[in-house]
Structures are given as structure tokens and as C-alpha cells.
Amino acid sequence: MSEPRFKDVDNVLRHPAGSGDVKSALRVINVLDLLGRWGGARTHVQISEELNIPKSSLTQVLRTLTRHGYLSFDQETRGYSLGPAIENLGARSRTTRKLSEVVAPVLEWLTEFTGESSALNFREGDDHRVVATVLGPHRIVAHLRLNDRAPLHATSGGQVILAHLSQTLREEYLSRARFESYAKNSLLSADDVRSKLDRIRENGFAKVVEEFTPGIGGIALPIFDSRQRPIASLSVTVPVGRFTDELSSKSLSALGKAIASLRHRAELS
């Protein structure tokens, strides 16, 4: 005997269609929402009935979500449940939030040790965004502002994240990136970026000199999650007049220590 359908449709359809909604996207949202709140597996028929979606229309939605890891399918019970990709998204969100909460004293030490501005950067789509920063004590500094954005390929903090993404994600990015002349050493083609990313992966860090902002250089290291995926970066940003080899080496060493401290504070394994 099959289980009864939900009587309270509004309780299931937490996201009723609005005037600007895409129907297929709304179905995806409602499937994920149903399975998340149900806390267990539901069959194709049950999902169709409970969300009032025709089985024929639901089939491709379920197949696509399963293929990309957002749903798991049990051959024995024929039930669908939330997949590992959902868990990964949640874990990433928790990790980045934790990093933001504990980074302030780490950046303060990093800036005090190097004498230069430092920042925590996150990848957001095709950009890197400054989510926390401490400015250096000099009268002339690299002035970083919260929520400053730049293309991933244009800055040290973005490049070091981009370099450690999977090859598929790197190539997808390069296929749609716009290569502009921001400063005298800007990377102006996908091939230029590929060559630099190869060097970054080999060396483990990214260094730029006047690639995005005239008169400014920077050096950065990646921060990885427990599955060795780049989720953020720490960077030191310096006016080129002070960006000596000695300061680069000092900053690189300090970045390594800062990331170790940050991982400990954020309880990253």
C-alpha cells in the first residue's frame, strides 16, 4: 500500500511559482527542498505525487541531479535522497564562514610581521573577493577594501585559487574570461594565463607585479579544504617600490605560518 500524499500542499511547495521563475529550475528547488525536509529516500512516484509534477517531466530532472551528485539513487529501494554534492556545498559554506570568523588576528599578525597589507580572499564565480583585510602601517600602502573584486586571473589571490582548481574548471573559466589591459604586465590571453598557472602549481604560490593595479604587486598562497580543493587564499599586497626579493621571501614564509594558524583556528583537518 502506497503512502498517502501530502494534504498540505503549501508545506511541500515552499517555493510556489512566481512571475519571474523558470519552471524547470523551480522543480529542481522543490525536489531538493522536499528530500531535505523529508530526511529520507522517496521514489520517483512519491516525488511526482507529492510535488504534483508529471512523472515524464520529473524523469530528466532526477537523472540530471543524480548524474551531477546532487541526488543519490538506491537501486534496491528505487528511492532518491540528497547526494554528496549537497553535503559538499554545505561543508564549503560552513568552512568559508568559519574562516571569516577567525581570520582577524591572523591578518593582524601577518601585516605586523611583513609590514604590508594582507587579505583573505574567496572565490565567487569568476572573481576573487576580499572578505577581510588589514592595511599596512606605511604612509604609502596597497589599499585593499572589503568586497573588492577582480577577475581570478588578474591578481595573486585569485590566480593561486584558479591554478589549483581542476583542469576542467580552469578551462571553463578561460573559455569565458575577458583579458583586459589593467596594468603594464596584465595577462592578455588564455595561453598567457595557462603558462602562469602551470608555474603557480609547480611553485605552490602566486606572485604578481603590476598585473591588475599599476604600481602594486602581491604574493599569495591557497587555502585548501579537507578534500584538497582551493576554497580561499591569503595574500600580501605591496607597492612595487618595496617589493624586493627579500620581502617576497619573508612574505611567503609568513603566509605559510599564517595559513597553518588559520587552519588550526578554523579547525580544518
Which descriptors would you attach to this protein?
single chain, 269 residues, alpha+beta, Arc Repressor Mutant, subunit A, 2 domains, 3-stranded antiparallel beta sheet
Written description of the protein model:
The chain is an alpha+beta fold. It has 2 domains: 9-82, Winged helix-like DNA-binding domain superfamily/Winged helix DNA-binding domain (Arc Repressor Mutant, subunit A, Orthogonal Bundle); 89-265, Beta-Lactamase. The chain contains 10 helices and 9 strands. A 6-stranded antiparallel sheet has the order 6-5-4-9-8-7, with helices on both faces. Strands 1-3-2 form a 3-stranded antiparallel sheet. A hairpin with a 5-residue loop joins β8 and β9. α3 (44-51) crosses α4 (55-67), α6 packs antiparallel against α10 and α7 crosses α9. The longest helix has 21 residues, at 245-265. The model is unreliable at 1-15 (pLDDT under 50). This is IclR family transcriptional regulator. Keywords: DNA-binding, Transcription, Transcription regulation. It comes from Flavimaribacter sediminis. Residues 85-269 form the IclR-ED domain.
